[in-house]
Amino acid sequence: MLDLGLLLTLYPPMNRGAMNTPEPAIRISGLQKSYKDLHVLKGVDFDVARGSIFALLGSNGAGKTTVVRILSTLLKADAGTAAVNGFDVAAEPGKVRESISLTGQFAAVDPILTGRENLVMIAKLRQVERPKEVADGLLERFGLTEAGGRRVATYSGGMRRRLDIAMSLIGDPPVIFLDEPTTGLDPEARIEVWGIVQNLADNGTTVLLTTQYLDEAEKLADRIAILHQGVIIVNGTLAELRALLPSATVEYVERQPSLEEVFLALVGDKTPNGKQDKEERS
Ligand SMILES: Nc1ncnc2c1ncn2[C@@H]1O[C@H](COP(=O)(O)OP(=O)(O)OP(=O)(O)O)[C@@H](O)[C@H]1O
Ligand SMILES: [Mg+2]
């Protein structure tokens, strides 16, 4: 069932008002959050520069969605501060909601409506001019023109995901949160989404992205942070993260470590594709 309250929360009219201020688009300091006894965020700090793509990585349950929910005012932090587009999430949640859109792990697509009806509904909530034209433009941009007249219940997972991202672009929000935007997409659709995200950032939109696909972070992100055991354990460019591990020399050809190798070295005991296990056994 469609949750109208959630929709109104997620899709108020847009406010690009504070865009020209020099402060970062997102600023988080000392953020803490517990669910009963589970202390998920233990003091999370990071900034995201305007117009940049920031990837937040972490194992399942690390707290990535929790950070995104706090930043999008769906959840209150226990301690610390967070500001989005210059507005404090606790003091000015309405202003924050006017500055953002959110897509990903909690898609707000209504399966009973057609793709076009979903888009028109959000365009009306966001009070954009000519909602039908906006909807048709987005359907075309996302390769959904043919499917636009069909109920979303009949869409494939990839089509739904594309529609969800299209909905989040309505009204041109200055800050976009993409929580695992390409999970479940086929390789072609993922590349398509990457192009869209890159294009957003090129046009000045700030993107905070969470992902389990480390190649996605490698490909897209200006900065990458790893959330582990409640804190950010590293935050840097891909080159800075790679420099944390010595590059391996294989047959006299120097090879840079992949982000996956850096991630696993910092976070866990697992080795990519279980390579170590095989080597140990042989
Ligand atoms: N509403 C809730 N009530 C209780 N525990 C919760 C709630 N939401 C999340 N958690 C727990 O908090 C931890 C962090 O969850 P969160 O969804 O933020 O992780 P995540 O990094 O997004 O994980 P994933 O990669 O699986 O999406 C998990 O252990 C989760 O079970
Ligand atoms: Mg999550």
UniProtKB/TrEMBL annotation:
* Entry annotated with the keyword Magnesium: no
Q: Which domain of life is it from?
A: Bacteria
- Give me any GO biological process, just one: response to antibiotic
Q: Which UniProt keywords apply?
A: Antibiotic resistance, ATP-binding, Nucleotide-binding, Transport
Q: What is its main location?
A: membrane
* Localization per record: Cell membrane
Q: Which InterPro entries match?
A: AAA+_ATPase (IPR003593), ABC_transporter-like_ATP-bd (IPR003439), ABC_transporter-like_CS (IPR017871), ABC_transporter_ATP-binding (IPR050763), P-loop_NTPase (IPR027417)
Domain annotation ABC transporter: ranges:
26-254
The residues the entry assigns to the signal sequence are: none
Pfam families, per database record: ABC_tran
Q: How does it sit in the membrane?
A: Peripheral membrane protein
Q: What's a Gene Ontology MF term here?
A: ATP binding
What the entry lists under PROSITE patterns is as follows: ABC_TRANSPORTER_1, ABC_TRANSPORTER_2
Entry GO CC: plasma membrane
**What does the similarity note say?**
Belongs to the ABC transporter superfamily.
What name does the UniProt record give this protein? ABC-2 type transport system ATP-binding protein
Which species expresses this protein natively?
Answer: Glycomyces artemisiae
